[in-house]
Every structure is written in C-alpha cells, then in structure tokens.
Design brief:
The protein is an alpha/beta fold and 283 residues long. The protein has 10 helices and 9 strands.
Length: 283
Amino acid sequence: MSRTPLIVHTIPALRRALDRITKKNATTALVPTMGALHDGHVSLVRLAKRRARKVIVSIFVNPTQFAPSEDFNSYPRTWKADIARLTAEDVDLVWHPDVKTMYPDGFATTILTEGPATVGLEDRFRPHFFRGVTTVVGKLFTQCRPDFAIFGEKDFQQLRVITQMARDLDLGVKVVGSRTVRDRDGLAMSSRNVYLSPVERSAAPELYRAMKETVRRLRDGDPIEAAVAGGAEILKMAGFTLDYFEVRHGETLAPIASLKDGPMRILVAANIGETRLIDNLAV
C-alpha cells in the first residue's frame, strides 16, 4: 500500500526533510508544478523516479508569472486529488509553500534571462512571464537542491530558458525534458484544458493536426513560409485566434530561413474562446 508523501510548508521543515531523505547520499529529482495534476504530471514523476532514488514534487501557484489580466485567481486548485495522485506514485516529499514563504515582505530579487527567453515567442505576448518563471524556479532549485529537475516539453521555450539558467548560474542541477503527453485525439494535456467548453474541446485537437500537417509538408520539401501558412489556416478555420505559429531552430529557438539551418521545431500559441493553448512539435 502506498504511503502519503511527507508534506512540508516552511523552509526549516523543508531542510529537515531534505536532510532525512538524502542521507546515504541518495540522489533526488524535483518535479516543479502548480498543482491541478494530470497524467502529464504523472509522467514527469515517473521519469523522476527513473532518474533518482528520491522524488520531490513542488506545488505552488506562482503569482509572479501571471499578468493582471491572466487567470491566477481562477487557476484550478485540486489539492486533495493532487496528493492522492502523488501518493499512488510513491512520491517522497511534497514542497507546498505559501506566497509569503516564497515572496516574504521586502522581497526584491528577480532573475532576468536573455537568450531563449527573448526570441519573440511567449516573451512577445507575455513579457512578464519568464522573469516570474526563472525567479521561482531558481528559488525552488536552491531550496530543494535536487540533482535533477524534470520539466515537460509542452512548454518548450520555458524548458530551454530554465536549462540555460541552470547552466549559466552553475546551479548544480541537470534539467531534463520529458515528452509531451497527449489525449487520444492529440490534444496536449494541460491544467488549463478544464476551461474549454465542450464545443471548444472538440475543436482543440486541430492544434495538433495543424502541426502534424506542417511537419508533413516540410518533410515533403515545401517552403517554410507556405507550410506554416497552411498550418495557420487550419487553426483559423477551426476557430482559433493565433498569437504565433512558427518554425524555429530546435535548440536556440532562433528564426530559420531554410531546412538546412538545423533541427527544427514548430511552436504555436493560440486562443480558442477564453482559453490560451500552447504546443510544439519537432520536425
């Protein structure tokens, strides 16, 4: 029978717990989350278990990565269901700080990144976002001191930004990307999918279809501009409003002009109704 993971809410309790679970030099892997866990998160936990002897999951809805117009207050919070999932996966430790613990009175430090954080994708539409992400993830890394940190590839630009930050700042953690988990119809699993109405949910898989069709056309030798325009048209016909639908270098995220420029990845952000979905696919 699975045991409930140890749950801690304060820095002193976290340090005591870490001393306990890392005795005998046990390796640790951290899975940072904002809760509302789904099968995609479970896949991250299972990868963490393959990488390390002990697994830590953080649950913290980070206010600094939400703009005033975004959904911080309504972001889904499913604490009891989350703990039940983590218990079933035999997670060792859950780090669940409150906002005052993460951002105490007088907090005045942020981590600013360039490189993949300034390539004109998410940063163009959510200029506040990566500053909030890198600051909170930097804190989680220094608080939890993991050997590995597991992030999903669905948030691909975020994965590249955090990987760069950890390397540049010598944080001593290896950032590991995990493949995107999808529903049977291709929609990438996301906590925000609960916002979709039934009609929107039926149209949402067109996001994946548009990317796959674009990949097919690129592999068949179509020019990048034509292939991208075709994918964008699929989404517009399905009722999406596009923020971006682009082919970028698969590592630097820089724009590319030719199929010869290196590994390619399609990255997309689009709105359907009131819900903003992001996704990506390697070419």
